[in-house]
Every structure is written in C-alpha cells, then in structure tokens.
UniProtKB/TrEMBL annotation:
Native species: Rhinopithecus bieti
Protein name: Cadherin-17
UniProt membrane topology term: Single-pass type I membrane protein
SUPFAM superfamilies from the UniProt entry: Cadherin-like
Subcellular location: Cell membrane
MF (Gene Ontology): beta-catenin binding; cadherin binding; calcium ion binding
Cadherin domain ranges (all copies): 58-126, 127-235, 237-352, 353-453
Principal subcellular localisation of the protein: membrane
Length: 580
C-alpha cells in the first residue's frame, strides 16, 4: 500500500510538472484564497495547484462542494478525479486548511473557488418534436402564425447558446414554395409571399431546423388553413306564407320548418346557422331550434298562444353565424325570411288574478264584516259568478258578482287560523267553464279565553297530623295566543275564609304553589278555590278549585305472628310537585 501511494504521488507530480492551473503563471504557493478556471470536459486526474504548508503543519484538509471530484494530497497537491460538467455545477466553492500531526488546524480554512468554463457540448432541443398551428385563409403576408422556442443548456449569451432557425422544407409546394418564413433568431413563423386559400391546400407541413455553431436539431410543424366567415346564410325562400293555429296549441309543438344554407366550411362557426325572431313576437311565445348537422330550423311554441292579445303576428326571422363576418361582408335581405301567424279563439275558463288570495282580520269582527275579496277575468269577456267551496265552519259568504267575502258567523282563531276555503269563478253563459283559487283568512287573536287549570288534579292529600306546613304545585293555561315569552298569570286564594289556612305563591308565568299556613288542620277533605288572572286586554280571570285535598291519619296496625309482634306501617303519600 505504501508503494502504491508513493507511485500515485509520483504520477501526480509528473502531471503537475507538465500541466497546471495557477494564478499569474504559478503552479504552487502559500495557502491563501484563490480562484481557478477549468474548462468542462477535460481529462480527469489533473493537478490544479500545489499549496505549501508552514510548520508545524504536516498535512492538508479539503472541504466544501467537492462532489467527490476534488482531492488534496498530504503534499498539498489539489487535483480533480472526474471530468467536470458546467451544466451540473458551474462553480465549486471549496475550503483548504493545514493540520498538524494531531489533526488540529494550523492555517485556514481559506476559500478556493473553481469556475467551470463552458464548451459547446449541448445540442439545442425543441420542447416537442411536432407542432400544430393554423392560419386563416386570406390572411395578409407578414401575419404571425406562431413562435417556435428551442433551448440550449450551454452558457447563456455566448456563442455556444446562440441559436439560428430556418425552414428546411415545405410540403406541398403549392401554389409555390417559400410561402412561409421564420425569423432567424426570434423563431417567429410568418406568412411570407401571399394569402392562402383552403381550396388550394388545406394543410402544409414544414421542417424547421434550429442550430448552434456545432449542432443541429429538426422539428416538424403542421399548418392548417382554416376557413374565414366570408359567406352569409341564405334562406331557401324569403316568405313561408300563412299559418293558422288554435290558441290552445300545446307548448313545445313544432309549427314550422325553415332552412338556410351557408357556403363556408361545413361544421365550423363560419357555416353554423342560428335563427332569431327579430320582429312580431315581443312576448317571446315562439323559438327556433337548429339542427347542428343540417342547419334546419324548427319553429316551436315556447309560451301559450293568446287570441285575445295577439290574433295576428307578422314574424320575421334572421339567420346568422356565431362567428363574426370578415370585414367588408354584411348580412343582407337573403338572410331574412317571414311568415304570418293567425291564432284562432278557443273558449277558456276564467282566470284569477292570483293563485292564492289572503286577508287578515281580528277574530272578534262583527257578523257581516267584509273580510276580503277576489278577482277573476274571463278571456272572452263573459260575466263571472263567484262561489265558495270548503267553508266547513259556515263562517263566510261571497258576493256572486263582485267577489267580496263577508263573515256570516262569529270567528274563532282558536278553532282554526288561517281559515282556508276555495273560491270558484264560473263564466256566465257559454260553456260555463270554471276555475278555482284559494282564499286564506288569517285571524288575529283577542283575549277571549279565561285561564284554566292545565289538567285535572285528583288524589291530593297531606299526612295528618301535619308536622310541618305542606305544599302542592299546579299549572294554569288558556287557549289564547301568547307572545314568545309565554303567558303571565297571577294567582291568589279566592275566598277570604280560606286565606287564614292557605296561601298561593307564584313560581313563574304558568305555575304556582299552594301551601298550608299552619299545621292545625282537622282530618277531612278540603276544597280550595284559586283565582287566576291572565293580565290580558281586556284581563280575564277565573276561579278554579283544587278539590279533594285530604288530610289522612297515619296509623299503625299491630298483629301477632308466631309469638312475635309484627308492625306494619301504612305510609301516607309524600307531597310531590304536580306535573302538567
């Protein structure tokens, strides 16, 4: 191994004597910051420089962006072991230091910069091998078709990466060669000599070459000549005559077929035809659908026809392309057509002005009060008779002529609000056709329901004798409409004779507590009357009773069983809050 290392150092020394990369013509010197320039692609194992160490340094250490390419020997010989590539790394930043026998740094580290100089070793490339472009026929010479861009990995802004473009071949050469040109340095492809005609050739294929000073690359460009919209649609006839339809003809029906043709390239925006109704149909009752394959137009009914508002309509069509016409070409009378639509009358049912009529009144309105009205109209102008259907409570009547609705009985919001009935409008004479609408009567609340207990309270009792005052909880309610906060009842003992024994305390707006004032009660059933007031406008109150409040005796029954006393206790019910 020692002999092998000695031979390796001897070889490097011989290379060092033959070649080297020093500064100011020197190949060796002291350790200091230095920059070296080396061309990429040169043979490996070449010495760059020899650094000299000052005692007590005995060896050198190399760190930084070595990429496992750069090495340094004990004697200070800096060299590289593989071919350098500028496109991989254009600059290597290294650091060199001297070490003593114990591996401690004596000098440095100092920066050593290796600049890799470019050589033309990369072929220019296109992003893709084939491109496709289009040019409108009749485009002027000089118009841009597109720009080709090639790339060269060699150093930018040098002769190695300067690219030149040229057209190698054009096929077909009709009507002549040289119809296209490409800018030498920019790569912009242009129309050269004359405008193109799709009738001559619909497609051209170009071979494009890009080159630097040493390499060439080819790509292929397909250029499609596309039609321009220089032809207008022409109707096969300008007048489609007269058409008579009943006003109840179904929506969606096809009533007429129209046809125009266009001489531009088929199945393009230049030859596709759209039909528009430009006159005679302000309500939009008709529409035209186009067959995309034949350009045939189908006139359809989009909204119901109406004899009463449009008995005769002079319809005018215009045929247009979605693609704009070229400059200088305009639509003329050939792109317009007409027909006359006659609509015949059909007896129709009366029509209400709205589907649902709605009114609002207080539930305490007087009998005979007008609570709402409905309106309907007969398309043929016949008189209308109104009637009600579904007045299950018998609350309403309607004026057969005017459609005014009146109350004929007391109304009650709690019984039903909104109150819904149907209104029937029937034409007088003719076929007596009729139609139906809805009438909703919303009743606003008045305070007309007194308070009451929320449920029946039974089997209420305390244990007798009372050891402490007892209490029971009860709930009140009424049937009137309350605010989102709920009712606010007040509670009191209704009889003065009971107030010495019983008291009522309010818990919240709906619940109260009945309590005994003392414990000195007889064993019997008590009926307690409670006054409940709702605080409404006007305020209503009622007196309710909590019947059957029993004070029961707690007793002990003794009996003998096999010589032993056995005691059974009959427990009185515990006092519990009452649930609603």
């Amino acid at each position: 191994m020692i002999l092998q290392a000695h031979l390796h150092s001897l070889c490097l020394l011989m290379l060092y004597l033959a070649t080297g990369y020093g500064q100011e013509g020197k190949f060796s010197g002291p350790l200091k910051p230095m920059t070296f320039s080396i061309y990429e692609g040169q043979e490996p194992n070449q010495i760059i420089f020899q650094f000299k160490a000052n005692p007590p340094a005995v060896t050198f250490e190399l760190t930084g962006e070595t990429d496992n390419i750069f090495k340094i020997e004990r004697e200070g010989l800096l060299y590289y072991t593989r071919t350098l590539d500028r496109e991989t790394r254009s600059t290597h930043n290294l650091q060199v230091a001297t070490l003593d026998a114990n591996g401690a740094i004596v000098e440095g580290p100092v920066p050593i910069t290796i600049e890799v100089k470019d050589v033309n070793d990369n072929r220019p490339t296109f992003l893709q091998s084939k491109y496709e472009a289009s040019v409108r026929q009749n485009s002027r010479p000089g118009n841009s078709i597109g720009t080709l861009t090639a790339h060269d990995r060699d150093e930018e802004n040098t002769a190695n990466s300067l690219l030149n473009y040229r057209i190698v071949e054009q096929t077909p050469k009709l009507p002549m060669d040289g119809l296209f040109l490409i800018q030498t340095y920019a790569g912009m492809l242009q129309l050269a000599k004359q405008s193109l005609k799709k009738q001559d050739t619909p497609q051209y294929n170009l071979t494009i070459e890009v080159s630097d000073k040493d390499f060439k690359t080819l790509c292929f460009v397909q250029i499609n000549v596309i039609d321009i919209n220089d032809q207008i649609p022409i109707f096969e006839k300008s007048d489609y005559g007269n058409l008579t339809l009943a006003e109840d003809t179904n929506v969606g029906s096809t009533i007429l077929t129209i046809q125009a043709t266009d001489a531009d390239e088929p199945f393009t925006g230049s030859s596709k035809i759209l039909y528009h109704i430009i006159k005679g149909d302000s309500e939009g009752r008709l529409g035209v659908d186009t067959d995309p394959h034949t350009n045939t137009g189908y006139v359809i009914i989009k909204k119901p026809l109406d004899f009463e508002t449009a008995a005769v309509s002079n319809i005018v069509f215009k045929a247009e392309n979605p693609e704009p016409l070229v400059f200088g070409v305009t639509y003329n009378e050939s792109s317009f057509a007409k027909f006359t639509l006659f609509v015949t009358d059909v007896n129709e049912a009366p029509e209400f002005s709205q589907y649902v009529f709605q009114a609002k009144v207080s539930e305490d309105v007087a009998i005979g009060t007008k609570v709402g009205n409905v309106t309907a109209k007969d398309p043929e102008g016949l008189d209308i008779s109104y009637s009600l259907r579904g007045d299950t409570r018998g609350w309403l009547k309607i004026d057969h002529v005017t459609g005014e609705i009146f109350s004929v009985a007391p109304l009650d919001r709690e019984a039903g609000s909104p109150y819904r009935v149907q209104v029937v409008a029937t034409e007088v004479g003719g076929s007596s056709l009729s139609s139906v609408s809805q009438f909703h009567l919303i009743l606003t609340d008045v305070n007309d329901n007194p308070p009451r207990l929320a449920k029946d309270y039974t089997d209420l009792f305390f244990c007798h004798p009372l050891s402490a005052p007892g209490s029971l909880i009860f709930e009140a309610t009424d049937d009137d409409q309350h605010s989102f906060r709920g009712p606010h009842f007040t509670f009191s003992v209704a009889s003065e004779s009971l107030q010495n024994d019983w008291q009522v305390s309010k818990i919240n707006g709906t619940h109260a507590r009945l309590s005994t004032r003392h414990t000195d009660f007889e064993e019997r059933e008590y009926v307690v009357l409670i006054r409940i007031n709702d605080g409404g406008r006007p305020p209503l109150e009622s007196i309710v009773s909590l019947p059957g409040i029993i004070l029961a005796v707690v007793f002990i029954r003794m009996k003998k069983d096999k010589g032993k006393d056995n005691v059974e206790s009959a427990q009185a019910s515990e006092v519990k809050p009452l649930r609603s």
